[in-house]
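Because discrete structure vocabularies remain unfamiliar, we reproduce here a specimen of the format, pairing a chain with its fold in token form:
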Amino acid sequence: MLKLKEVLASVGKPQTDLARAVELSPAAIAQLINYGQWPKSLDQQQLAWRITEYLMGQGAQFDDVRQAFEKVEPRRANAEAPATPENDQETEECDPMLMPKQPLLPATKQAFELYIDPFDELRAAEDMYVTQDMRYVREAMHVTARHDGFLAVIGESGAGKSGLRKDLEQRLAREGSPIIVIKPHVLGSEDSEVKGKPMKSLHIAEAIMTAIAPLETPKSSPQARFTQVETALKASNSAGQRHLLIIEEAHSLSIPLLKHLKRYRELEDGFTKLISIILIGQPELAVKLSPRNAEVREVAQRIEITWLRPLPVNQVEAHLVHRLGRANKKLGDVMEDGAVQALIERLSTSGKDKTSQLYPLAIANLVRAAMNLAVQIGEPRVTADVVREVV
């Protein structure tokens, strides 16, 4: 924080007055005062001189003005975190998907009269705003589970993949479907020994046996274990059960394991496949499953790949209306006209490759940060300028 905040307080002037005097947005002044972030579009020395002239004109002491641009520690030990992370790189080069999770600060919730965070993790399927892409992927997952299939669901972090997985499990439970969902433990798994501990075919076999035959001990040899899994799956299938293997973070699977999954898909009882598979992962999974990758060509020929794309620009406002509505808030109570368009402009051509980042998580992070910043500078609602000043 700059000592400028104390100097303004000493002359009884709010930050908004200073912003008007130097022809900057309140958000830009707040970023300067609270976090020492100078606007990149202006010459720092010229801006400092304009601020100095304003302070002197308001009767500030010369010694105080001279020290106004020095950094000082906030008065409170539990001072609120900045609305956006600081770093040494040019902000326009930062990918908003890398923005750490932005919590709604207590003061923000109180100012907007929110008792829950409308952009928090999904608590029910109804919380999820479903685009046409998501609707297709949702049904593709359901068909794979209920009938048969080998499906890859691919999307960026925060695109809604885990929400669709939870929705599928709840949907199957509501329907009373005789489907055993098998989810191997994926925490900390990587695709090579160099990066971490890769998941192996053994772990898949153990997960299957735990789900459908928990009293049996997995065999030690690979051949005996695979035969044991096949026998258990056939017995379960004869009892009227279907089997669905879901692997999240599938972009971390090794090439050998992807090839082994094809062998699991080949298990059958007559014309009936014994296990369906859904892989859920980030775009790196699509690279591994490329038909041009000779190592996994047979897998690529058998798997259906579906993508969760960014929200279409014309659905961003509806997404915000839906999520805020789940917290009994209207969009107009939180964001002014123009703020949504500013958000779209920030996220639709962002990052080094200028690609759309209009994913639910990126939208949530930016809106939260903008709401926090609005409260800090005394704006009753999020404005377009506030959205633009979140860096």
Notes: The longest helix spans residues 222-238.
